[in-house]
Write a structure and sequence with these properties.
By secondary structure, the protein is an alpha+beta fold. The chain has 2 domains: about 110 residues, no CATH class; about 55 residues, no CATH class. The protein is built from 4 helices and 5 strands. The longest helix has 15 residues. About 25% of the residues have low confidence. Belongs to the 'GDXG' lipolytic enzyme family. This is Alpha/beta hydrolase fold-3 domain-containing protein. It comes from Linum tenue.
Length: about 160
């Protein structure tokens, strides 16, 4: 699904209405017509556009988060790395965080942990429904299988609460 799909449009509008943030959804050129790294370049071009062109009164472009899921998580990661390497060239935009939602970092061959079905070092935010009430919870998968994960309560903004 692309950034211009109905699903992502609804998600981004909901995110913008529920948080004190401006949400920008970015499309990118697709393979096989456009080979990698054109997708990373498209993402970084969007950051440069925000830095040079966009004038949003009252918006602090010095506190930008990049986010993506699946392949978009991979793209957001690489754009964040490039933004950090190009920090001197960016005048207003400063990437201060990355939200990777089940990012895809696949390779040519499966790794040992891929073959074993292990998840390592992931933080997943899930919406739990217990007794008809919605509750957010952070599930930390330290090392091992998901069923061994620890569930901890978290605030609406994803900050983990003390147990």
């Amino acid at each position: 699904m692309g950034a211009d799909s109905r699903f992502y449009d609804i998600f981004c509008r909901s995110l913008a209405s529920e948080t004190p943030a401006v949400v920008v959804s970015v499309n990118y050129r697709l393979a096989p017509e456009h080979r990698c790294p054109s997708q990373y370049e498209d993402g970084f071009d969007a950051v440069k556009f925000l830095d040079a062109v966009i004038n949003l009164d009252g918006v602090d472009l010095g506190r930008c988060f990049l986010a993506g899921d699946s392949a978009g998580g991979n793209l957001a990661h690489h754009v964040a790395v490039r933004a950090a390497e190009s920090e001197a060239a960016l005048k207003r935009v400063k990437v201060t965080g990355l939200i990777s939602i089940q990012p895809f970092f696949g390779g040519e061959e499966r790794t040992e942990s891929d073959r074993a079905g292990m998840f390592t070092g992931s933080l997943l935010l899930l919406l739990k429904n217990k007794g008809g009430k919605k509750k957010k919870a952070a599930i930390l998968i330290a090392a091992g299988k998901e069923e061994e994960a620890e569930t901890v309560p978290c605030r609406r903004d994803g900050v983990v609460l003390k147990q």
